[in-house]
Design brief:
single chain, 195 residues, alpha+beta, six-stranded antiparallel β-sheet, 8 helices, 6 strands
């Protein structure tokens, strides 16, 4: 078992989730991440990105920001599954953007209840939290999501190739009020934002 997984199991010994089983199923080892997923991350995301207002996506991608901050929330989960299935993907990953590596791999056939348990201290403080920044992407190379918790407004930025705007407009609706606020929060990105 991965040494980092063992450390997590030690820290969260009393977790209400069967954490060992969850991590055996969903943990993405650093080796697998580097070999199988990092090439796709580098296609989508700017690998020189450090923090906002730097551009997080590569130049060929347009943006669709949302308010959230959590890498996934139940209200949007089915929309993300539709997007993943549109691109014929069976898996996606969530990678924490920090010095300490933490990565997870999920299957598109898993329900919200399969991946999330509100009684788990580990999930609430490490993965489905508002304390870190996260990348979410698949192997299509067509889109990705960056969840930022550096800003007080908790912005999620979805980047995608412009020819796929229809799938994001259909599945991730943004109110006019949110659009106005987002434009004031991200003035550096306004030329790349597509509603």
């Amino acid at each position: 078992m991965d040494i980092q997984v063992e450390e997590i199991l030690n820290i969260y010994k009393g977790d209400k989730l069967n954490l060992k089983e969850y991590l055996q199923k969903h943990w993405l080892s650093r080796e697998e991440y580097i070999q199988e997923w990092l090439p796709f991350k580098d296609i989508i995301f700017n690998n020189t990105f450090k923090c906002f207002p730097d551009m997080v996506f590569n130049k060929s991608y347009v943006l669709r920001p949302l308010f959230s901050g959590a890498v996934l929330i139940e209200e949007d989960y089915s929309a993300y599954l539709k997007i993943l299935k549109y691109f014929n993907q069976t898996e996606y990953v969530i990678i924490r953007d920090s010095v300490d590596y933490m990565g997870f791999k999920f299957n598109v056939n898993e329900s919200w209840n399969d991946i999330f348990n509100p009684n788990s201290n580990f999930l609430m403080s490490e993965l489905f939290c508002f304390a870190d920044n996260f990348y979410l992407f698949d192997k299509s190379g067509c889109w990705g999501k960056y969840s930022s918790n550096d800003d007080s407004d908790f912005i999620d930025i979805i980047g995608f190739l412009p020819k796929f705007i229809h799938i994001f407009r259909e599945n991730l609706i943004i109110s006019d009020e949110d659009k106005e606020i987002i434009m004031t929060e991200l003035p550096e990105y306004k030329e790349l934002i597509i509603w």
